[in-house]
Specification:
With about 300 residues, the chain is of the alpha/beta class. The chain has ten helices and ten strands.
Length: about 300
């Protein structure tokens, strides 16, 4: 099966958010595989991921087989393809929640594709969070969800990890994280200031190196799988040519928008649950195949990963 980086966009108009803010002339980016008449599966993107980064699970010999399903890959707000600071020029960008993302995806699915029901929502990491969000926000709309390595509510430990990542970017502007932020983005004296090339480069390099300690397990490093499996010559080669390379082309504000979405993830932050997390979990009607990773550092197997 041939893949390419091309994608489509669906216009949302002036998109109202949970916060009361609006994304003017918003759009959601997406790509599809398969026959629109087949059972539909929504497969959202993950933190910092582009639509093309989801292709690994799609194929004739993969779980998401286009011969059997109509697969829709929608991009998160802030990923650089859907409406984001980098492609709208809106800085600081409005605060976007999981609810806002899934509401936009529902608009795409129902208005653009005229789909009445989904076979499944499948997702990894922030994609898993969106799977839980779909099941709580539109509980009768899908048969099942398959969230893997993700959670329905961002844990305190996960929030701390994300705060550390945020601080690597803010520190390159010499700001203190939460004291110099609006909607998760850095401000200077109450107003937004563009990143200088040096700030951007330093911040993104630090961001990649901090993420390196969390994106793979202790066992991954202990067994030197970056050498034996991925083919890097040593640890520094891996840090530079995997982690730094992944984040180098990113827009810092795009990363901060998605990070803020993730950090505040909680399926109970919507009506009718109004903060009652147990009620939100009980409101899920779809069957759920929850797949935690045994060695995952922020969605651990023993940590009630749906939370």
């Amino acid at each position: 099966m041939a893949f390419n980086d091309e994608y489509e966009t669906f216009a949302l108009g002036d998109w109202s958010l949970q916060s009361g803010d609006i994304i003017p002339n918003a759009h959601i980016a997406f790509k599809t595989f398969g026959d629109p008449k087949s059972p539909a599966i929504v497969y959202p993107t993950w933190y910092s991921g582009l639509i093309s980064h989801n292709f690994w699970l799609v194929g004739d010999d993969k779980l998401l087989n286009p011969a059997n399903y109509f697969i829709i890959i929608p991009a998160l707000f802030g990923n650089g393809q859907s409406s984001s600071p980098s492609n709208t020029g809106i800085r600081p960008f409005p605060r976007v929640s999981f609810y806002d993302n899934v509401k936009a995806q529902y608009e795409l699915v129902t208005k653009h594709f005229n789909i009445k029901h989904l076979r499944a929502v499948v997702g990894w990491s922030m994609g898993a969070g969106q799977s839980f969000q779909w099941a709580s926000q539109y509980p009768n709309f899908m048969d099942l969800i398959v969230p893997f390595c993700g959670s329905a509510k961002t844990s305190l430990h996960n929030q701390v990890f994300l705060e550390g990542l945020k601080s690597t970017l803010f520190s390159s502007k010499r700001f203190i994280s939460s004291l110099s932020a609006a909607n998760g983005q850095a401000l200077d004296g109450g107003s937004y200031r563009q990143w200088t090339p040096d700030e951007r480069e330093a911040g993104l390099k630090a961001f990649g190196r901090v993420y390196a300690g969390w994106g793979f397990s202790q066992a991954f490093y202990r067994e030197r799988l970056y050498e034996t499996t991925l083919g890097y010559k040593d640890l520094e080669d891996f840090m530079v040519n995997f982690w730094e390379r992944h984040f180098a082309p990113k827009d810092p504000d795009d990363l901060l928008v998605m990070l803020d979405t993730w950090q505040k993830g909680d399926i109970s932050q919507q009506a009718p649950y109004n903060g009652n997390f147990e009620m939100a979990l009980k409101g899920i009607k779809a069957r759920a195949l929850i797949l935690p990773g045994k060695t995952d550092l922020y969605f651990p197997l023993g940590g009630r990963t749906w939370r």
